[in-house]
């Protein structure tokens, strides 16, 4: 029989907000929000004190201020967060080389072949969390399970600063009462649809034929059929390739096409900085505009030589902006992104 996999999902607790509180201990106990304080800004992260007022990531700052007028707003410092994330990933590497980062604040680890002195995956997770706290001052939560699907759910079970194990023999019992809203990929609208169909838990869905789920949810119904039975064979991919790097600005006021280009130098510099950090170049540049009526317009160009610095990205962005037809439309967002990424020293073929 193949060995039962030991997958750990590590999730930092309110990462951006906790990182800010670490260097601003005077704000501990206060509702802290990481966001630009603008008319159209959205929350990047909220401390647990702020969450008690109903604040959460992706909520508009305007709505947050109505719910919690006394919240403290701190602009995000992504260079600082990336530095902490690198520390955390160095800790992961002490225990395994099978690490799949999902973002700055979470990752999957495969400990199936772990050969250290700790006997159980729960002990390894506890040691990792202790190392993170000792070296960064921040807490993390962990989920331990035989696959990625269950590990991710488990990491949210004892937040903050906790961990939860779903052993192989516990899977079906655990899923029987799991609310459908806890299944990754099931949003508010999908959960409401499931409730109308009489499906309140993963256990309810597990009693449903595959064809019925596919009928209601399309191709995703096949995956849903497997997940509610605790089946997920995805590997922890330690060499995840980032497919795109981008940056965008939501404007405080709508701007016409002829003036919105003034934001391109800032966007080009931000994207170039990320590319340099990743030691990547790119062959394709994309300009994104969102009009005041929320229509999204994109223009892309693939180049014969890879681009990697701010001036070349700026020139490409300006070219793409010139291709946008003149109109009376006003725009609320502008973004610049790159794709077809290559390692820094790789050249595109001439033919």
Question: How would you describe this structure to a colleague?
Answer:
It is a single chain. The chain is of the alpha+beta class and 351 residues long. The chain folds into three domains: 1-166, Reverse transcriptase/Diguanylate cyclase domain (Alpha-Beta Plaits, 2-Layer Sandwich), CATH 3.30.70.270; 171-227, DNA polymerase, domain 1 (Orthogonal Bundle); 244-343, DNA polymerase, Y-family, little finger domain (Dna Ligase, domain 1, 2-Layer Sandwich). It is built from 14 helices and twelve strands.
What does the secondary structure layout of this molecule look like, with pairings?
Layout lengths: L6 E6 L2 H9 L8 E3 L10 E2 L1 H4 L9 H7 L4 E3 L3 H15 L6 E5 L2 E5 L10 H16 L3 E6 L2 H8 L7 E3 L5 H6 L11 H9 L5 H5 L3 H8 L2 H8 L16 E13 H4 L3 H15 L1 E12 L4 E12 L2 H13 L7 E14 L8
Keywords:
351 residues; alpha+beta; Alpha-Beta Plaits; DNA polymerase, domain 1; Dna Ligase, domain 1; 3 domains; five-stranded mixed beta sheet; four-stranded antiparallel beta sheet; globular
Mean pLDDT: 90
How many β strands by DSSP?
Answer: 12
Q: Beta-strand percentage?
A: 15-25%
Number of domains: 3
Strand order of the largest sheet: 5-6-1-7-8
CATH topology of the largest domain: Alpha-Beta Plaits
For this structure, the quaternary state is: single chain
Total number of helical segments?
Answer: 14
CATH architecture of the largest domain: 2-Layer Sandwich
Q: Estimate the helix proportion, in percent.
A: 25-40%
Would you list the SSEs in sequence order as H and E? EHEEHHEHEEHEHEHHHHHEHHEEHE
CATH superfamily of the largest domain: Reverse transcriptase/Diguanylate cyclase domain
Please outline the major beta sheet: 5 strands, mixed
As residue ranges, the low-confidence spans are: 346-351
Radius of gyration: 23 Å
Shape: globular
| First-last Cα distance | 50 Å
- SS class: alpha+beta
CATH domain class name of the largest domain: Alpha Beta
């Amino acid at each position: 029989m193949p060995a039962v996999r030991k997958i750990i999902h590590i999730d930092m607790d309110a990462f951006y907000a906790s990182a800010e509180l670490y260097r601003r201990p005077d704000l501990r106990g206060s509702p802290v929000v990481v966001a630009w304080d603008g008319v159209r800004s959205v929350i990047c992260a909220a401390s647990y004190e702020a969450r008690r007022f109903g604040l959460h990531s992706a909520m508009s700052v305007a709505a947050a201020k109505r719910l919690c007028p006394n919240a403290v707003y701190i602009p995000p410092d992504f260079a600082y967060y990336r530095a902490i994330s690198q520390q955390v990933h160095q800790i992961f590497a002490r225990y395994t080389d099978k690490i799949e980062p999902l973002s700055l604040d979470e990752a999957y680890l495969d400990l199936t072949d772990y050969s250290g002195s700790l006997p159980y995956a729960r002990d390894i997770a506890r040691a990792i969390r202790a190392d993170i706290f000792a070296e960064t001052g921040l807490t993390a939560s962990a989920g331990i399970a035989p696959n990625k699907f269950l590990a991710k759910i488990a990491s949210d079970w004892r937040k903050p600063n906790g961990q939860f194990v779903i052993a192989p023999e516990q899977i079906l019992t655990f899923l029987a009462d799991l609310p459908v809203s806890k299944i990754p990929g099931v949003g508010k609208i999908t959960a409401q649809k499931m409730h109308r169909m009489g499906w309140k838990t993963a256990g309810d869905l597990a009693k449903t034929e595959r064809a019925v789920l596919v009928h209601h949810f399309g191709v995703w119904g096949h995956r849903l059929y497997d997940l509610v039975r605790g089946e997920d064979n995805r590997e922890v991919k330690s060499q995840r390739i980032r497919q795109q790097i981008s940056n965008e600005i939501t404007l405080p006021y709508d701007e016409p096409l002829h003036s919105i280009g003034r934001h391109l130098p800032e966007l080009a510099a931000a994207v170039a900085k990320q590319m340099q950090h990743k030691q990547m170049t790119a062959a394709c540049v994309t300009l994104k505009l969102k009009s005041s009526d929320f229509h999204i317009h994109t223009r892309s160009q693939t180049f014969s030589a890879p681009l990697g610095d701010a001036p070349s990205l700026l020139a490409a962005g300006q070219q793409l902006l010139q291709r946008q037809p003149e109109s009376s439309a006003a725009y609320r967002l502008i973004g610049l992104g790159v794709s077809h990424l290559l390692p820094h020293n790789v050249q595109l073929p001439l033919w």
